[in-house]
Structures are given as structure tokens and as C-alpha cells.
Amino acid sequence: MKIAILSRNKKLYSTRRLIEAADSRGHETRVIDTLKCYMDITSTKPAIYYKGDRLDGYDAVIPRIGASVTFYGMAVLRQFEMMGVYPANESVAIGRSRDKLRAQQLLARAGVGLPVTGFAHSPDDTKALIKLVGGAPLVIKLLEGTQGRGVVLAETYKAGESVIDAFKELNANFLVQEFVKEAGGADIRCFVIGGRVVSAMMRQAKEGEFRSNLHRGGTASVIKLTAKERATAVKAAKVMGLNVAGVDIVRGKEGPLVLEVNSSPGLEGIEQATEKDIAGMIIENIEKNAKPHRTRTRGKG
């Protein structure tokens, strides 16, 4: 197969591993910098151009679209879909997962376990918002944040009130969420491919930090999931419409709670922690499913 990988840096671990996995299985790959593409948007013969070349003949595209280029990245991916190229993750699904509020609403509607969450832009009653999520400590998240950025733990009511008021002054959209104390600063990254959990790791925040992201010094270890945790991760990915997803959950008193569903999960941490060939599994899933114009969520927004 001929596979396009949408990535702004071919030296990134995840991109390199996908190239290696595809090459080892006899496929042809090309890394395409999303922002350097330009498009001919016509109804009869849509096209994408890159460095003067028309991108033709691709069987599949793997989107590794950073959060900062989501809008243009999804436009390029939609163009590939219009050309009949099979996407490892569809543009509609990526859009759902990148909109934190929409993702929470879709997961809640499907009955997926979530921390108690409130949404606000400029609430007149900050006290009521804090009370809604059970008081302090509480977590406040900017909707645009990634990899733990824009996430604040307010340990006291007064701190929560100050952060919320500051975000209001900035005209920022944010979520307010209960702090799941029993998680102990740890969460679980479940890697879902093709409707099943293929690997999982527990990420533990470093001392003095509540965010367990590996980018922020968290540590990773292999973990055995319960049947309910597996089912929750699979359902969360399915609700988003993602074939490949990193589903982050915490262990709450009543069971697993989903924190986030990531449409471009990094491979380095999970591969090193579990010693599994996740990149190879992604390529294998594409081999099984890649067919022209094969998109499930087309037209559903």
C-alpha cells in the first residue's frame, strides 16, 4: 500500500515508528507536513498538492495532527477523504475528540463514566459552579489545553474562585471538574485500536504534581485492566468514532472515569512501558480496513 503520514516532523518518535512499521511490512510511506499542503476543492476532481507534487494514488492516510494545527489539519484530512483515501482516524472523529466540551457531552449522553463536570464562560455565581463539582479541591481546564497545559488544580475554595475569576477576565472557555482524590495522582492510558484495547499503562505523577503526563515528568508502568475498564475505554473510542485512540481513565470509587480521549496518542511512552509493537498494530489495522471511500461517519458532522 501507499500510505501518507500527516506529521510536521518526521523525526518525532511516533512518526518514525509508523514509518518503520509500514516499511517492514512492505508498504510505501511519505511524511507530509500538513501546513505545507494546498488544495484544489472541486466537486469533480478534488486534489492535494505538496511541494509542487499532486498527491495521487494513496491507499491510506495516518493523521498525526498537533492540537495547534487542528483546523487546517482536519481540512487536509477531509480532502484526502474526498479523494477516497482511507483515514486511520476520520476528520469528524478527530474534531469531536479535540473539542473537550463536545467530547464530554457525547460521552455523557452515551452513559460513559465521567468526573462531575461543569462548563462555564462567565458564570455570575462562581460559588455555585464550585459547589456543582463538590467543592475544593477541584480541577479547572482550559478547553484549548493539551498535554496537561491549561490545567490547574485548585486545592482550596479561595484558590478555585481566584482561577475561575481570572479565566473569566480573559474571556476563556473552561471546564470545572471534580478532583478524583482516590486516584492518587495516577491515571491509566488505554490504547485502543480497531475496537479493542491492545495495551495499557498506568501513569503516576511526580511528587508535588497532580498531572500524570509523561511530558511533565510522570512515570509509566504496565497495568492489568479490569473488564469494566476495558469496556469503558472501547466505548469511549467508539463514541468518538476513533479507530486509534488513547483513552485516559482514572479509578473512581464507583468505577472507571474517562478524563480524555486522544486522537493522536503518542507511541513512545506506551511502547517503552509495555514493550509492544503498537505502531505495527496500527499498520495492521489499516491493512485490514483500507478500502476506497471507506468512512463511517461521513456526513454526520
Automatic annotation (TrEMBL):
PROSITE patterns: ATP_GRASP
Protein residues bound to Mn(2+) 2: 260, 262
Residue numbers binding ATP: 141, 178-179, 187, 211-213
GO cellular component terms given for this protein: cytoplasm; ribosome
Enzyme Commission code: 6.3.2.-
ATP-grasp domain location: 104-287
Cofactor detail note: Binds 2 magnesium or manganese ions per subunit.
Names of the cofactor(s): Mg(2+); Mn(2+)
Binding site for Mg(2+) 1: 248, 260
Alphabetized InterPro entries for the sequence: ATP-grasp (IPR011761), ATP-grasp_RimK-type (IPR013651), ATP_grasp_subdomain_1 (IPR013815), RimK (IPR023533), Rimk_N (IPR041107), Rp_bS6_RimK/Lys_biosynth_LsyX (IPR004666)
Keyword Protein biosynthesis: yes
A Pfam match: Rimk_N
Residues that, per the record, bind Mn(2+) 1: 248, 260
Residues that coordinate or bind Mg(2+) 2: 260, 262
Protein's GO biological process: SOS response; translation
Entries under SUPFAM superfamilies matching the protein: Glutathione synthetase ATP-binding domain-like (SSF56059)
Gene Ontology molecular function: ATP binding; metal ion binding; ribosomal S6-glutamic acid ligase activity
Keywords on record: ATP-binding, Ligase, Magnesium, Manganese, Metal-binding, Nucleotide-binding, Protein biosynthesis, Ribonucleoprotein, Ribosomal protein
UniProt record similarity statement: Belongs to the RimK family.
Name of the protein: Probable alpha-L-glutamate ligase
Native source species: Candidatus Sedimenticola endophacoides
Organism lineage: Bacteria, Pseudomonadati, Pseudomonadota, Gammaproteobacteria, Chromatiales
